[in-house]
Amino acid sequence: MSTDRPHSVSVAGVIVDDQGRALLIKRRDNGHWEPPGGVLEREETIPEALQREVLEETGIKIALPATLTGVYKNMKGLIVSLVFRCEAADGTPTTGEETRALRWATREEVTELADEAYAIRVLDALDAISPPAVRAHDGVKLV
């Protein structure tokens, strides 16, 4: 077993509107369309991280509890991501330091805009499957 690099844990929130569309962000750092999210800080709980990351990247405060819809492992980046279906509680979608653009996307648009590894997270959340999906990817494609 290799111990040269530990895994990190991230959260992502798929906010779904009343038309069944998901809110995607276009990241400033890589230009990719993804659900809002990021890495947990040392002292925060998973729900706290989820609320913080979604608020930072979208300007929207989400209602808790949110529904866990999937667990995803980036086999190359060594990141385990917990993805939740969320409901907006307050706020208006706005760009920020980490977000170049935002858009409400249909299922079809999600698969056109996002890499497979991120599109499946959004689709799993839209489907709100139970039990949650457990998947692995290489950063772009499912493995």
TrEMBL record:
GO molecular function, one term: hydrolase activity
Keywords, ordered alphabetically: Hydrolase
SUPFAM superfamilies: Nudix (SSF55811)
Cofactor(s) required for function per UniProt: Mg(2+)
InterPro entries, per the entry: Nudix_hydrolase, NUDIX_hydrolase-like_dom_sf, NUDIX_hydrolase_CS, NUDIX_hydrolase_dom
Keyword Hydrolase assigned: yes
The keyword Nucleotide-binding appears for this protein: no
Residue stretches making up the Nudix hydrolase domain: 6-127
One Pfam family of this chain: NUDIX
PROSITE patterns, A to Z: NUDIX, NUDIX_BOX
Similarity comment: family membership: Belongs to the Nudix hydrolase family.
Protein name: NUDIX hydrolase
Organism of provenance: Streptomyces roseolilacinus
